[in-house]
Amino acid sequence: MINIVHNIRMAKGSNKKLAILKDEYNNAHWRSVLLAMYDTSINYYVSAPTDTTFVEDEDLDVASMIYMLSELSSRTYTGNAARKVALECSEEYGEIFRLILNGSMKAGVSTTTINKAYPGLIPTFDVMLAKDVPVQRFP
Fold it and tell me: What does the alpha-carbon distance between residue 61 and residue 102 come to, in Å, rounded to a whole number?
């Protein structure tokens, strides 16, 4: 899975990045990682550790990683316990876990691009714009 991130980082231009994302359309694990990474309504309440552990894609158990992220999100662990869990998970799951905690794959891809590849995957909230209203002046 981290190989997909590296391929997106190496791609030049948004169309090539979008093509790489579309190639992984049927990869359910990849979509759950993207949702965990880019959904701004999910807060994990802990910053990513500065560990440099690299885990091979074949060794990555996405279901258990998502479970541990949900434990952090539900505040099962707080304070030093949350930092300890984040460090242990970082060692177990590697770079992809740290990218999720940081909220971006740092590859120049936004939620707009992800939603072009996977329509409706990441919820977005459009802001209502105010309209100009003529001000009445009283004499």
Answer: 19
Q: Residue 60: which of 108, 117, 4 has the closest Cα? A: 4
Identify the sign of the CA torsion 117, 120, 125, 129.
Answer: positive
| Secondary element (H or E) of residue 97 | helix 95-102
* Rg of the chain (C-alpha set): 19
Residue recorded with tokens 């391929």: 7
Over the stretch 73-123, which tens digit does the pLDDT of each residue have?
999 999 999 999 999 988 888 889 999 999 999 999 999 999 999 999 999
What are 70's two structure tokens? 């949900």
Q: Which residue has 């091979």 as its token pair? A: 56
What is the C-alpha separation between 98 and 7, in angstroms, rounded? 18
Task: Give the residue among 38, 1, 10 at the shortest CA–CA distance from 116.
Answer: 38
Alpha carbon of 105 to those of 40, 124, 126: distances in Å? Answer: 14, 18, 23
Contact 96, 104 (CB under 8 A): no
* 131: Cβ contacts below 8 Å, ≥ 6 apart: none
For 29, phi and psi rounded to 5 degrees?
Answer: -65, -40
